[in-house]
Specification:
It is built from 3 helices and no strands. By secondary structure, it is mostly helical.
């Protein structure tokens, strides 16, 4: 009995040991599963950390690019503002130039008009002088003796001078009566 008790105690010890072994194996399985889960978690954590680091680097690069773009945008906006100012100044200058051109053209027209009026007045004064000279010449022409008549008068004066010279030299005097043309026609024969 004692052996049976020992065997029963041994069996119970073996059963308890088997149960403890099964418990330990179950615990080991649980710990192994937890270890695998923890290793998987550590691996995912490492991957997440790497991805976070990559994301932080990408974010930093994006911020850097954003700062560069912002600077470029600020420069572009400044150039746009400068270009608008230059355009406005150019428009103002163009308007002033147009006004100056219009004023200059008006002055040129007025100057040409004054020159034309002065020239017309000078021509008018010249024409008035020429008309006065024409009237004087016409009056003088009306009082002038024709050239043929002057030649005849001069020829007659020569004849008279010759006749006086002949009379003074002792010639006889002849008195003529009638028209001068009759005597001329006789003299020409």
């Amino acid at each position: 009995m004692q052996a049976r008790k020992d065997l029963t105690a041994s069996l119970e010890t073996a059963r308890a040991a088997a149960q403890i072994l099964a418990t330990r194996r179950a615990e080991h399985e649980a710990i192994s599963a937890k270890t695998r889960n923890l290793e998987d978690l550590v691996d995912r954590h490492r991957k997440a950390t790497d991805e976070r680091t990559s994301a932080e680097l990408a974010l930093e690069a994006a911020r850097s690019r954003r700062a560069e773009v912002r600077e470029g945008l600020a420069t572009a906006q400044q150039r746009l503002a400068d270009a608008r100012s230059a355009l406005e100044a150019a428009r103002t200058s163009r308007q002033e130039a147009r006004r100056a051109l219009s004023a200059g053209e008006e002055l040129l027209r007025a100057s040409r008009r004054r020159s034309a009026v002065s020239a017309a007045r000078a021509r008018h004064a010249e024409l008035v002088d020429l008309e006065r000279l024409q009237v004087e010449a016409a009056a003088l022409t009306a009082t002038l003796i024709p050239a043929k008549a002057m030649e005849a008068i001069e020829a007659n004066e020569r004849l008279v001078a010759e006749a006086r010279a002949a009379l003074a030299a002792g010639a006889t005097r002849i008195a003529l009566s009638g028209t001068l043309t009759a005597y001329r026609s006789m003299a020409n024969r």
